Amino acid sequence: MSPVAEACSSNGSSNAAVRSSSSTLEIPVSSSQVRWVVEVQDDAGARRTALPERPFLVGTSPASDLIVHDPTVSAAHCSLTASGGFVAIADVGSKNGTYVGGARVREAWGQEGTLVVLGRSTLTLISSASSASSTDASETEAPPGAPLAGVAGGSIAMRRLADQVRRLAKHALPVLIAGESGTGKELVARSLHCLGPRRARPFVAINVTALPRELVETELFGHERGAFTGAHARREGAFSEAQGGSLFLDEIGDLPLEAQPKLLRALDGYEVRRVGAAGSGQRADVRVIAATHAQLDQRVTSGQFRRDLFHRLECFVLTVPALRDRRGDIPAIARELLGQLAPDVGSRVLTSSGLARLSAHTWPGNVRELRNVLCRAGDCARSPRIEAADVDRAIRRDSPAVAKCLTPHRARELLRENTGNLSAAARAAGMPRTSFRKLLGA
């Protein structure tokens, strides 16, 4: 196997067979009839176009079949040829190279989900079975609108999510935002608030998991002076603070069972009463936006979550896709994150090889993990350019910048993931135990 083929096949996310100029490329065999669409993300945004069954030239030249708006892409960069169940990818002498699965390639066979990196732009291959009864969604659905302001990434999936957010923002009903940890659910919640009629009122965010179990009701609903030991003064809760605005409850699946009836009462429009208060309480004029990475229906089945509260929350559900399912967004997200990290690691830019390596990773920690990797890569890079080797070291955590990249929120998540074992969580973070403990208290 050639060095290029080895580089690609060693990464499980490549979804492609590749070859160098000295190897022989075996044509895949597929009996299925497939139509292909390519989604391009470049400086002009994201868009989709159908691939004909002929060589399809990609580049910046007006003569290209697909014009890419990116100064780091060559006039004639690569060609794509749809062939049944696969797409032949061929570099046509580009300056910065064509990358598939983290490896620079001359030729490759791509399949469903294969990501091709050109300069600082990406191409994602999307297939749909061709039959008389099925039509590609891109031909039947209206083109999605603009991405959400403040949410990096303009893939078609994220623009469809943006359309849903804009539609639901005008309502006052609860919304449940589902998605893996680190996908940016709070950013979506803030967009729901900022695009709606409550934008001038407070947006209050509460991470349910971070609350001590015995203080959950106090944090949400407040307490009267003397309600319990240590309650030296009356305290307003999150519902009062968010009056007229929006209350974001992150990781709602971790809400203790004893607090769930009170939340259900507040959602049903009844009064919210402070802990220790007598008589009637205050009617809640708050839009509740909840988020979870857990399967709430499974928690209902196991008795950890009330069925009536679940059905009250899941009237409208928004799902934020995992980063591995929208790898074409990685360039835009990475540029945004590098800008945020510049005060800590200096001004940095990704090379095509660095971007390709990022795009080949599976990102179990999603955007939060991407931020940490970029922080470490930027810290260990020997120049303003982040290369593939810098990304590799950062993914392996071979960098003294781990503590700089780890937030208190992520430290608490690591502690939960390691069932409260401080030493194990510190090892997972790549930090000394004492430093990790200090971060928990930040």
Q: Judging from the principal axes of the Cα atoms, what is the shape?
A: globular
Helix content: 25-40%
Beta-strand content estimate: 15-25%
Distance between the termini: 51 Å
Broad structural category: alpha/beta
Radius of gyration: 25 Å
The largest beta-sheet arranges its strands as: 1-10-7-6-4-5
Mean pLDDT: 83
Annotation field: number of helices:
17
Give the beta-strand count.
Answer: 23
Low-confidence stretches are 1-14, 20-24, 130-140
Largest sheet: 6 strands, mixed
Describe this structure in words.
By secondary structure, the protein is an alpha/beta fold. It has helices at 3-9, 137-140, 156-168, 185-194, 216-221, 238-241, 260-267, 296-301, 307-313, 330-345, 352-360, 366-380, 388-395, 402-405, 408-417, 422-429, 433-440, and strands spanning 16-19, 34-42, 45-51, 56-59, 66-67, 78-83, 86-91, 98-100, 103-105, 107-110, 115-118, 121-129, 175-178, 203-207, 222-223, 235-236, 246-250, 271-272, 282-283, 287-292, 317-319, 349-350, 385-386. It has a six-stranded mixed β-sheet. Strands 3-2-12-11-8-9 form a six-stranded antiparallel β-sheet. A hairpin with a 2-residue loop joins strand 11 and strand 12 (121-129). Helix 10 (330-345) packs across helix 12, helix 12 crosses helix 13 (388-395) and helix 15 packs across helix 16. It starts with a helix and ends with a helix.
